[in-house]
Amino acid sequence: MPQHSSLRPLTWGASLAVSGLLLTGCGASADSKAEPAAATSASASASASAAPSSSAPLKPGEVRVAGQVDKPYTLTLTDLRALPQTSVSVEFTSAKGPQKHTYKGVLLHDVLKNAQPRFDASKKNGQLRGVAVATGGGDYRAVFAWAEIDPGFAKSQVLLAVSEDDVPFEDASGPRLVAPQDTKGGRYVSELNRLWVGVVDPVVDGGQH
Question: Is the pLDDT of residue 171 over 80?
Fold first, then answer.
């Protein structure tokens, strides 16, 4: 009996020692797993801080040209005024009633062409698969088929207008997208700030119904 009583403390002690080792091992494992997670988090933070300037907030009067293009860029009202100007007289209806104005500005086609859209040259008239999306104040948005703005396919002169009836737009209200061929003013996008160019292939070929 004394022999058994002397073994019992040893057994409990050994059990506690094993438990301590297991707990220590678990702690080391958790630390080793946490380190890669911390490194991943740090890497993600670094990537976020290195995000392209195209994600920077736009100032009033700035327009960002992006999308499926080789040379995205941002231009201002001042930049637009320095480019060759086109003048158009338009008539359209709006919520305020019939409108009649003369706008002066830069052809939308020229602005987008400078960004070098990535149209598929291997496709016949590959540019006809293209679309241009204009976004303005209040996240107002309108879509144009590329053929509507390309002088090689249409006579329309869609403009990024810098003035209305010879009154220059201020940065807070311009430029304004003008669609002379439209009889309603829905696609006259005020406070224009973003232009996106792309092709419809990913949607059409992606099996969308």
Answer: yes
